[in-house]
Amino acid sequence: MIAQCFLVTLSLVQSAAAFVAPRAASPFTASSHFHSPIPQLYAAAREVDCLVVGSGVSGSSLAFNLVKNHDVDTLMVERNEVVGGNLISKENEEGFVWEEGPNSFQPTPYISRLVHELGITKDLVLADGSLPRFVYWQGEGAGAKLANLHALPTNLPGDLLDFNLLTWPGKIRAGLGAIGLIAPPPTDREESIREFVTRHLGAETFERVIDPFVSGVYAGDPDELAMKAALKKIHRLEGLGDLGPGLVSGAINRFKEIADEKTSNPPDPAWPTYKGGQLGSFRKGLQTLALAAEEYLGPERVMKNTPIDKVEKLPDGRFKVTVLKDDKPIEIIAKSVCLTSPTRVTCKVAADLVPAATRLAEVYSPPVASVTMAYKKEWFKELPGGTSREPLRGFGHLLPRKMGVRSLGTIWSSSLFPGRAPEGWELLLTYIGGARDKGIADLSEEEIYKQVDADNHEILLKSDAPSGKRIGIRVWQTAIPQYRKGHLEILDALEADEAKVPGFYLGGNYRTGFFFCCLW
Asked: Is the overall model pTM greater than 0.85, yes or no?
């Protein structure tokens, strides 16, 4: 879904660039970045070719591409005082670097190109793709593992024999389903993630492997999430194989497609390279990307502390957009408008032009808290692959709901990327809440810190270890849009109405997936 999001962003770039009239040269030169940031910003009406609303990953990369690669006169407006949207990277005087939103991205050629063109290759950091990803599980037929942490297989089918998170009956059931010995899909309803996975791989694989994955990626309820919408690449495998509906046959053909895509459209050698299984970030966090885009665009093309109020279609086909600056309305006249705002904003602003946008109110986004804590290295118990000097070696761990641990999962930040913690410390980023724990929104920050610290102690720390150092917390009241049953119907209605308004485009993670990951 990460690559899909960036592909759709590129599609928006092409659509907006094609819609506006080409100009001989941009009125903004490189030297204009050092001019006064105020000229024309407070005029009664400013005219631009394209107005981009929102400065998250989609908005920042869209505005940057329009200006750099298509010479489109573009203005980006952001309601907050800094760019980045949900990308919030922090650093303190002690030397801790942490994220309060998404924590990493899966490298793709499209992201490599963006990193190269933004000039931030030197800041790129890639995690070791061989680091294990763990699931916490104890008892009920699982084999013994240090701290009850079971590493997910990376080499199939070889690692599967030693994967003792599943019982032998569970492995046999998953294997038979993977080769296609399954019941047909239902024809009278959308299939949930739980239903699809259980039909293909069995209840045990769902409960011990997929359920924690869904919690980690979506903070969602697998009984409510629609398989075709939320995990559509996996869903597609069922109909892609030559040897029936098995996921293995579909995956073989998908690998062939990927190889063909790489051959037909090879990446530029100048772009940063990566290996399979790696996750990426930047030395000072993910917000580096949005800040680099802002620096390139310059102050004349970026308005912060500027929420959008309304959009109107003019008789000549252009749009009059009202934004608020210091609570005062400012009008912007644009040939095209791209909204990359959250659903709650898009639902309100776009409804007059795209009636189906009102249905975005049906897209639920549950509360999730991101909590970062630090612990001294000697406080950790013996963990798989760890040593006394480096107790953490892995991406992190996910937590099946059946284990009764309230946290959704924890990223081992200081193991994943360099420079995240000072000498002698380890840094952990935990997500807690989600669609099956809405009550997290009612807790105080103190209560959330205590809960996460207790969960960390239960799984990772020695019994006599003191409480961790509190580094940062952010409670997202509306976090990740849930692709529930009926979501694709909403998107179809949105696309049909959007097509009737040339030059008006809607984008965001409710539509295109997640550019950056919450867990992995």
From this structure: yes
